[in-house]
Amino acid sequence: MDxxxxxxxxxxxxxxxxxxxxxxxxxxKALLPIANRHMIEYVLDWCDxxxxxxxxxxxxxTDVAMIKERLRTYINVRESQYEILLKSIQAHHVQQVRKPAxxxxxxxxxxxxxxxxCNDLRDRITGDFVVLPCDFITDIPPQILIDQYRNKDSDNxxxxxxxxxxxxxxxxxxxxPSYIVYSExxxxxxxxxxxxxxxxxxxxxxxxxQIRTQLxxxxxxxxxxxxxxDSFIYVCSYDIIxxxxxxxxxRFPPGGESEDSDEETQNATxxxxxxxxxxxxxxxxxxxxxINVDKSLDKVIRDLARRSWRHAKLRETIGLFVLPAGGAFxxxxxxxAYTEANRYILRIKSSVMQSQQITGTNIGADSxxxxxxxxxxxxxxxxxxxxxxxxxxxxCRIVGSVVLDGAIIDDESILENVIVGPATQIGKKSRLTxxxxxxxxxxxxxxxxxxxxxxxIHLDEILTSEEMTDSTDDDESSGYTEEYxxxxxxxxxxxxxR
Length: 498
Description:
Blueprint: E1 4-8, E2 33-34, E3 37-38, H1 39-50, E4 54-59, H2 61-70, H3 72-92, E5 103-107, H4 113-120, E6 129-133, E7 136-138, H5 142-150, E8 156-164, E9 179-183, E10 193-198, H6 200-206, H7 213-218, E11 223-225, E12 228-236, H8 239-245, H9 263-269, E13 272-274, E14 285-287, H10 297-310, E15 317-322, E16 329-331, H11 335-350, E17 362-363, E18 368-369, E19 374-375, E20 380-382, E21 385-386, E22 391-392, E23 397-399, E24 402-403, E25 408-409, E26 414-416, E27 419-420, E28 425-426, E29 431-433, E30 436-437, E31 442-443, E32 448-450, E33 453-454, H12 465-477
Parallel strand pairs: 1-4, 1-6, 4-5, 8-15, 17-20, 18-21, 19-22, 20-23, 21-24, 22-25, 23-26, 24-27, 25-28, 26-29, 27-30, 28-31, 29-32, 30-33
Antiparallel strand pairs: 2-3, 6-12, 7-16, 8-12, 9-10, 9-11, 10-15, 13-14
Helix pairs in contact: 4-10
């Protein structure tokens, strides 16, 4: 069974100031380097292990053009490696090697991932498919996910993949976990299923977690977890495309409630839709329901999961799979996670390499130095990444940091847990700790910073004191009070702009 793969590449606003601003300046998230490689290259390497039918990279027009240009070398090397391997195997007549899946670049116009899936990809999907983000690194092979999906229940439309945070250094406040409601089905042969999902911010704001009565009637032994994190990996059947793309009314009624109040009327208006069979569903018929696709894909999956309990008649379910605890999985969707992803790759490198010495410097085996990088004498670099064309002065100490391309660090500077943007200049005898420095920023000599983010000031990003006073007066005079807002309106999956 061949799968199509779709990799969603977003702006990466959560990685500000090292990715694009809302004025589209800068580079997309997919090209942010991890251990001097574009983060999307790790995802492409992972896909090559799975033997997928084709790999599709999605994004806005300007992003796709830039990603395609930057990946040209990677694609050429990938093809050259295949040719070398093919000649070697043919010479020995040992076995056949599969040609790498083609990489396609698709320009999308939708503002949300759900809209992109429904409108831009509907005609491209020909069978079961996999949705991936562009920012994850893992040592768990794709065969584990594929095998789990192949063993799914016959009534599963898709399989949502979750993981637990295995990195202690990631700041938990940046994880933004949701409340995941699921059924383990311990006393049956059925696989665990996803039932519902609530935003953590929504629960904190309302001060309670409201579980629907219909859910408890249908699944009385349901569990709730706040430790499961969304990987944005979904293995989907072809049926899901037919279900979400042929709705006459694309939205749920206000409040997210179903239209089951009058069962006779609903049963009379609902139509049975014959769906192209997937791997297990040979003679399955799906009832057409109203699905709102004008939102992020994780919320579309959530709404599909709610179909299993919110209607009077049974509906198909969404399977749930938690990645095994023995493997490593991390998404670089925040600055702390991005830093930890670099360190994870560095630890792997240090386990297979010895310490390296460059003209009197001390560069540990757990560090990576890019091409044309100049490191001064008596400089120590530990658990850090130095990009290409960087210049590090004498008697500097760099620990647990990421220095991007073209940065200059003057003599006797100390960097601990710092991300330095490209073409940044850090003055002599500066000491920076737990800080982020935007690209092309100039840090004055002898600067001491701890826990700071240095960015360029743009006039369109600030308000004058007069404007701030006026806006405050307006709020107070109108008696403004904060009201409950549905999580669909504000939650960001970090992939596409709302």
